[in-house]
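Predict structure. Chain length: 255.
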Amino acid sequence: MTKLSMLLTMQLALVAFAATSDTCATGGVCPGTADVEVNGNLQLLQVGVSVRSADTAGGTAQAPAGADAALALAAAPAVVDQALYLDTVRDTLTGAILRTPGVKPGSGDASSLVHIPYDEQTRWQGASWCDYCYTMAGGARVQNVRDLVQKTISEGIPGDFLEAGTWRGGCSIMARVVQRAMGEGENRNTYLCDSFSGLPLSSQKKDGNAWSRMHFLEVSQKEVEDNVKHFNALDSNVHFRKGYFSQSLPKVRRS
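Prediction complete.
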């Protein structure tokens, strides 16, 4: 068996074990495993084939046997298929993978809004709100965030990412995942700026208060932090700035 086929076989076995180890011998799901989140699936996705040139010098390779082989593979840094990983993050954030239904904008919370079937083109364009997903920006705009962050990093342009009005955190999650996937997690910051309590009452006589009654837009900071954490993207370089922009953004500039 070649070195590559051995690595593939061992990794497939590890993934299979990780995917099935929460099933008890008596049937059903073992206690404590029912709360597995999206991040577990994304971690499995990051498992790649690690073939080191030093291991294959001279055209031959010797792999450790048995449990030692599994431990060595688990400890070795995985080669991530970055494009596949980032595509999956994008489509998870927008609800495209689960084909989550949309909702018509209106006053009230999710239970009081009219739900509409998932439509691929509408979701890609971000032309409607989505029910249980992480962003209403749509696939095209989230892809644009990804492209711009990748471009700034690849061209060595310094700077951080800031999202002013983050809702459930989707665009910031995309940006932070790109920063980390490209090895810039420690050098760049991500700022999530929001009231985390919806939109304010109108301050002008000609304005109305319709937006402030849209409770579907109210997402707490704790919920957004949890969303970022589910994608393994929450660390000391992710910063939350709570408040309306007139108060929060000047503080970001001074920090």
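Summary: DSSP finds nine helices and six strands in the chain.
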